[in-house]
Each structure stands twice: as C-alpha cells, then as structure tokens.
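Milestone M4 deliverable, item 7.
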Amino acid sequence: MKLIKRFSIIALFLAALQFYACEEIPSEVIDKDFNSFSIVDFQSPNRFTYSTADSNITTSIKIDNTSYIKEVYMNILSIDGDKKVAEKVILSDNGDMGKNRDLKANDGIYTGYAPMKKSFSSGDYNLQIYITNTSGVTKKIISKQFYFDNSQNNAVPIISDVVLPTSVTRGITFIFSVKASDPNGYDDLQYVYFKLYRPDNSMVDPGNGLGFFVMNDLGNKDVFGDEMAGDGIFTFKNSFNTTTTLGSWRFEFQAKDGNGAVSNIISQNMEVN
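Output delivered:
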C-alpha cells in the first residue's frame, strides 16, 4: 500500500484550455544545466481539479540550446512512488495544439499533457521531467509535487469479512485477512491495518512509528500470505514466539483513506496456547 512540495501564477495557454495556476521552479528541485543546454522556464499546476471538460494536466518547459535535445518527457507517480499514473508522456515543440497543446513550433517550449482520471484518489502526486540529450544520456531534471482533486466527495472506507483463527499455538505460522473497500476507489485506501492487544489489555507497539500493523494486498503468498494482488483482501502472516504470553489476544481491524477518514472497527479475539 501506499504510505502515504510547490511554483507563481502564469497564464500560458488559450482561455479555451483549462490550464491552472503555475509557479516558478525552486532551484533545489531542478537541474538547470545539462550538457550545453539549460532550463529557462517551467510551468505546471500546483493543484489540478478533475472536470469532464478537461481532465488533462498540462506541463511545459522552456529550454535554450535545443540543438542538444533529443527527447523530453514526463512521468506522474503516486506520492509514495508505488504507482505510475502516467509514464513517458512526450513533451513536444511542434506547434500542435491538438496533439500536445504546444502553441508555437521551434520556440524552445516543450509541452505535453496527461490524463488525471476521476478514479484516481484525491491527494498529492509527483510530476517528473526527463531529458535525453543528443548523446543518448537521460536525466531527471525536475521533480515537483502537486495536489489532485478528483471532484468526488470523500467517503469513509469499509472493512468486512475478517478471517482469523480462533486459536493458535506458539511457534506456528498463521495467516489472517480482512476485506477492505472505499467508495472513492481502491486507490483511495491508504492503510488497512490492525492493532494488537495482549491478554492484560496492553497494546503491542509495532515499532514502525504508525501505532498499528499494516496489512497488504500485494499478492505474494509465500512472503505475505496474500493470494491475489489488488483483490481488496488484505493479509498478514505471523507467528507468536515461544515466550509469548498465553491467553486471549485481541485484534482490532480498521482502514484509513488518503484524506484521513477511517473505517468501521472490527474486533476479534484469538487464543494463544
């Protein structure tokens, strides 16, 4: 799952195109010089809101000494880098408004756009610009975070169908699972997790800084015990060591979405013997 930064307003494109507020590039996220050419300007939204009229995010970059440029493209990733929502979208300086939203050919401004679907969860995304020079060397020269609003009212996630043994023996590996969904889409699920309580009601610290144990839906049965990736069934593979306190241990299952909304809680006990 996903474990779950910012540039002044410039109007670049025709009013008919929904192009949003842009900002100047902070020097700390851009490599301005790369093999005899340099970046003059970069324009991309801080925030992009989905609409049926225009669901494409537009980006442009102005470069001097373009004779050294072979290719310019962008990737858009989820903020944790786990998912590419757009991959190798070519930015062109061809004056083709229909294909690239480029206003004028051969002016050193490379433009392109990529769809941000309504099914994508609202939240932060990372836009990256790559340049390949005439020597064939490719380098990431810009990395920028923006916020995407999918125009859907946020709904809380839902968990159900906990599968947990009623009892286990110390030293024996066991697998348990819970089903999770989100009305705003699977990708809106940030964490599906459980908290674990000893027989004396003290909570076990998972040691990850989150305060809970993260379950996964990655599909690696041998490692995680998960049968199929992305099916909404989140699993955990565990065993209690031979010194574990005997008695009834309590599991509390819950889910959290990208906007911080939490699901219902399902509590279930398991006897350790």
